[in-house]
Amino acid sequence: MKYMSLLVLLLVFSLPAWAADLSEKDSLPEATPSSIYQYEEYTVKKGDTLWGIANERLENPFSWPKVWQVNPKITNADLIYPGQVIRIPIDLLKPKYRKLVKPATPAEPVTEPPIETPVSAPISAKKPVKVEKARYLAKPEFIAAAGFISDDLQEMGTILGSPSEHQLLGRYDRVYVTDNGANKGKKFSLFRKIKKINHPVTGNYLGTLYEILGSLEVTEHRNGANAAKIIDSYNYIEPKSILGEYSELEAVLVSEKPRTPNISGYIVETKELKWNIGVHEVVYLDRGADDGLAVGDVLSISKPEKRFYGEKIGKVQVIKTTPSTTTAVILQSTEEFHRGYVFGPVSEEAE
User: Fold this and answer.
1) What are phi and psi of 91, to 5 degrees?
2) CATH fold of 35-107
């Protein structure tokens, strides 16, 4: 994210010609965050940046666009000043900060309907129900940042620009997108191309590595373009981001007895993600759902050289599949993984 400033300087785009002619009456209403938010008021210090504050204080640093969106006086994400007061939604903060701060804005009361208890299932005060906390292997934000390799992603348009003229966009932002015949209410997922991937052994083209940025919903159609609003963001979104078929990201839960299918192949690319609690390595495999792999599967990793044949150096677990490729996160490793390393089933001996 240190190159954020460079991105702002280098990215240049043009809004549709009709955008500048919209009258106040025709303009779309400003989107605002939920009114039930509580906020921490943070005073900017010398040397602070919005990304730096997010990296230090937010549970997920990639949620920084949400902070930007609730501070409309910040017109440029790279320009904040010492003494400036920034509101940070408390539910975005790391637990250690969440416990210490006092809400700057009281939450509005939320009235919930009474919970009706069936007569056949009375609640016993003497025997409270034990609720197990879900254990996640990967949450949607991590899966989005990890991305996937695809050779058949149907690109349905791009973001053309924004009425706010922001170069870095996030949740609640209004944008203009390519006219693709979509009706009001149509949703699209947003993607960023990273690079093309060739197989490390055969040299064949496998596809393009994409990151998942978020999603948007079309709000209006006019004169050759669509107006839309960003409804979710996992990373910063920028003009020229790609629109594709909408799909919801689901968290991957830890499985007590994961499958270890008898499927083998190669690691075709690796990627390091600097996440909340450290660096996590992601690998991309040359087999996918059509080959029988599924989310949650565990596979072993070996070196390809004959002198190391059969020697396992780690395990990975699948967090996302496409028909022909797989994204997996490393569970165990005795050394660094590389392109061309081999994956296969986990043997009973290895267990």
Assistant:
1) -70, -10
2) Membrane-bound Lytic Murein Transglycosylase D; Chain A (3.10.350)
